[in-house]
Amino acid sequence: MSDTPSSSGELADPDVVASPRFDTLPLDPKLLRAVADSGYTAMTPIQAKAIPIVLSGRDVMGAAQTGTGKTAAFSIPLLQRMLKHESASMSPARHPVRAVVLAPTRELADQVAANVLAYAKHTQLRVACVFGGVDIKPQAAQLKAGVEVLIATPGRLLDHIEGKNCALHQVEYVVLDEADRMLDIGFLPDLQRILSYLPKTRQTLLFSATFSTEIKRLASSYLQNPELVEVARPNATATNVTQRFFAVNDDSKRALLKTLWREYGSKQAIVFMNSKLGAARLSRALEREGLRASALHGDKSQDERLKTLASFKAGEIDLLVATDVAGRGLDIAELPTVFNFDVPFNAEDYVHRIGRTGRAGALGVAITFISPSDARLVADIEKLIKRKMDVEALPRLEEERPSRAPRADEERPRPRREERYERQEPRPYRSASAPRAPADPFFDKPYEAQSGEEPAAWERATSSAPRKTAAGALSRYIKPKRQMAALFAPKPATEAVETSAVQPASQE
């Protein structure tokens, strides 16, 4: 085991060297017919370099930008090597799991399974795809019936392993697709557990759009002397994708989105956002404005996500507002435009987002909206792709209206709300529904004490009591307590004298 994989040679320039054809490879006619049915004749650079190495039985580290045909690069040669185990028997024992393909997301797993099924349709090999978010019982029944190729997400595969639904002791081939994404999500412990169930003697293929130090460390631990296959500079963006950047505040992003979308012919586009709540809100706002939009994020059920993708691929949805759950592995034919409504938090996610357009050599446009708070994120992206962003000026937006000249009666500036309220005199509150009572002049007069009115008894007692002198007395500044009318008559003075006589004399 070596720490550094060996290189497969100098990088080939696809513009200089003619792309070889699939029929030049030593493949079974059944596989060649399936490839032709898919509409492919010439190989992409990653396929031309990786397929012969996989056919030879060596481990591979494949580094290629998204949309370059990595799925076919590992699935076609693995199917060729597994044809020796092909069987028409209905017995599950004749169809053990021989190849495991691990993908980070449900969407990518489903996409890989669709491609593998297309390549294996003329063979007797069985293909299954398992992922979370759906009922596990149909998946368990399919696995117990026997499959040769198993595409899975790590979490759901562990569920089936612990449930005794599949055995991996006969696995000969392992593929780690989008390995960098699996590490970003936190699947490393699950990967380690899964790889511990597999035979030590196996062929392992690792494919990733980017090569980080963590990816190389993973490869050195689980790959045996891998061959490094690079067809593009690591972390490079596709040359056939036009990248545009606009400086815009958050309030004008939606208007800019509609303006640029119509500028490019109102064709299908994916709009990437960083949050699930933001994606849902933007999708609803676009729908209210009459656009065919839908959201794709992790809070939706797996069935809803698959239906949304199917509608988008069928052309029933124009704007797919998605989080990074859709940033990897989605193969939308002839997708012309990708919008980064939010700058991604991870610079590598930018490479994967714009990789949804310009696939299979087609031209594409990637537009990114940059707000004032995105300076650090933009710097990380520029450092990763080794390119300085040319920020364009904001065009005239659809919601903007030309300013009109003020009328003659509008020359004087209107006062601010606070000033208007200050000039207004307070008015008493009056209910509009309550009828006004007739005025009584008695209640409008101020109170005047009558001259012959006799004060109350407690007031007379207070006024007649002499104030204490300064010898033993209270200050004249201390107000006496307010006298309240007694509920009961006070005790006579004779009773008070008798009570005091009963009290014992104090001892000196």
Explain what you see.
- With 508 residues, this protein is α/β, with parallel strands linked by helices.
- The protein has two domains: 225 residues, 3-Layer(aba) Sandwich (Rossmann fold), CATH 3.40.50; 152 residues, 3-Layer(aba) Sandwich (Rossmann fold), CATH 3.40.50.
- The chain contains 17 helices and 15 strands.
- It has an eight-stranded parallel beta sheet, sandwiched between helices. Strands 11-12-10-13-14-9-15 form a seven-stranded parallel beta sheet, sandwiched between helices.
- It starts with 5 loop residues before the first strand and ends in a 6-residue tail after the last helix.
Give the key terms.
508 residues; seven-stranded parallel β-sheet; Rossmann fold; disordered N terminus; 17 helices; 2 domains; 13% strand; alpha/beta; single chain
List low-confidence stretches: 1-17, 400-413, 415-426, 428-433
Q: Report the top-level CATH class of the largest domain.
A: Alpha Beta
**What is the distance, rounded to the nearest whole angstrom, between the alpha carbons of the first and last residues?**
108 Å
Strand content: 5-15%
Could you tell me the radius of gyration in angstroms?
Answer: 41 Å
Number of strands: 15
Discrete helix count: 17
Count of individual domains: 2
What gross morphology would you assign?
elongated
The helix content, as a percent range, equals 25-40%
**Order of strands side by side in the largest beta sheet?**
1-8-2-7-6-3-5-4
Question: What's the pLDDT, averaged over the residues?
Answer: 78
- Backbone structural class: alpha/beta
Classified in CATH, the superfamily of the largest domain is: P-loop containing nucleotide triphosphate hydrolases
CATH topology of the largest domain: Rossmann fold
